[in-house]
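P.,

For your records, the input lines for the assembly:
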Amino acid sequence: MSLELEPAASVAPAPLREIRGPAALGGGFRRFWSLTWMVAITEFRLSYFGSVLGYLWTLMRPLMMFGVYYTVFTQIVPLGKDIPNYPALLLMNIMLYQFFAEATSNAVQSVVVRENMVRKMQFPRMVIPLSVVVTALMNLAVNLVAVFVFVLANGVPIRWTWLLLPVALIPLIVFTTGVAMVVSAAFVRYRDVLPIWGVFTQALFYASPVLYTVENTKEPITSVLQVNPLTGIMEGVRYLVVDARAPGAITSWGGFPQALIPIGIICFVFVFGLWYFNRQAATAAELL
Amino acid sequence: MTESALVVQDLEKTFRIPKQHVHTLKERMLHPLRSTDYREYPVLKGVSFEVQRGEFFGIVGRNGSGKSTLLKCMAGIYRPERGRISVAGRLAPFIELGVGFNPDLTAMDNVVINGVMMGLSPKEARRRFDEVIEFAELEDFLDMKLKNYSSGMQVRLAFSVMVQASADVLLIDEVLAVGDAAFAQKCLDVFYRLRDEGRTIILVTHDMSAVERFCHRAMFLHDGEIELIGDPAAVGRAYLAANFATPEQPEPVGELLPVEVEDEPDVEAEPEVEPPSRTTERVLAELSVEDAAGMPVRSLPSGEPVQVRVELQALQHIEHPVLVVQLRDAEHAVVTGALVLLYEHGPLTPGQRVRANVEWDVVLADGHYDLGVLLTQGTAEADVVIDARNAGELIVHSATRETVGAVTVPTRVAVSNIQTEGVR
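Structure tokens returned:
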């Protein structure tokens, strides 16, 4: 017999601890985080090393989108003509939106796809949507390398504010995580969340300043954009990385008191997502 | 001194199945106020028990008795409505082998991820990888993706992962029979060793022999309630008895005939004219099975005496009649048969009634047997006059633990002078 077994903690018997059933979190932070990280990095590696061209394909999609939009909005419709560093801005925005869309749409089915694990293993359920977000974040990090190459090639001057990019991404990550929690939990119960979310991400793409900038829009479109959490996030990144003369996050959200609305939406979605996912986690195994 | 490893107090779990399913957001939006009516299925109705540290505890029950639900509650996968479950130390559930394995990953990745799932740190999981692979005998296939493994290899890997998790309390759901014979033996060894090491193991199974072989104590769950808890042998008997007993009065086995009888089946018939010798006749007969107390039974414990009564009426002259009362096993092999030499009482005449009694001590292995009656006038197959091989059935349960095989011959076992090598 080759396998050496630990003597089952026979030295000090552990105290009795109550089992409270499945939960979104729990099991200790370390375990939660290592599990999330392992699942995320596994998915990431699978998508990249699954085929030789894995990375190229992942990069290809946003790049092709970029190519199409760039051609349309500089050659056919002169939308980007007055926007400084439009190609760099467009690529950056596409990558940011790609992160949001990829994370949330992969999250929709994530719990149901791992149905077998949910029904047969005990682990903090929040690992599932969170690992999807982390995987998307890894993809974003890789894509941002390509963006910065492009930014430099576009002649954008290097500034120290580039270092603040990770900070500017925090609201995006919080918002995305919140949405991921809501849609993944909702899909367990309502199966039409998938097509609804597909349409929604399409609509949101055009309702966010990806292809255009807020200051070039007219009322009432501007007011609508000012409520969108993604508006300030994208404008903030634009200000920090692409264009120092851009209005920045708060201004494009409509100034100080009004900016509290999209900020409030981000916070609310995250808190609601936590609450809703936690509530659904208890019974997800039974519904699947 | 005993300490509790797992305490379950007054556990209740009810599944609420809505009468009208709302599967889409659209339906929810269209009928936001529609009251959802639930049909309630109480699965666990107040289950309380305690498992001591180091105990090998078996849980048996029929399908739908709630044992899987109980297991999932203990595993923390279902949330019970009422009651408490407390566990000492780390608990690892094994509801199915290989859950969470990703076919696109190598053994290494899968082992580490699974280890982390079970509560090991990534470092710890990596440290144990070699041991896992060695135990699973998969050293030569390290870099292969799991999808290229044979199913046997996957099962071996999964079992090894389970063993290496070294939780304080293991919850195992019928995963005993895995792999080929050699590996199965290895698994059995591990189970024995885990037990001897004082690991607490809770085994949920249908397999009574496993319960009787491994468990210190067992629990019989029936309809969401504990029917019996205690000695595995007693629980095994209760379980098998409940399994085979019909809830009502056991229906009589006999009354099976009329039987189609063919007279002189060898005669070549003219196509147009049905020869009179081939007309089928009906033979009325009765068959009853009774236990020692004279009560009709269908199932009984191994080793108990059983009385089979056969009554039949001959419709033709049979010069050399022999009555065979036999038991066939699931493979249709005759396990035993009593030859009643009717010819010793002279030939049978048409209309004559015969009654025969056969008494057996059913020293057979657990199982389902066909009780058959044949009336023959010779030794060849063609000599059979009445053929009722599936006339009745007999279910044998609770064979002793000391023997294996088809027949439980009275057995006495003695052990002396066991020497132990230096293993702890």
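Two observations worth noting. Chain B is about 20% helix and 35% strand. Chain B touches chain A through 61 residues (CB under 8 Å).

Regards
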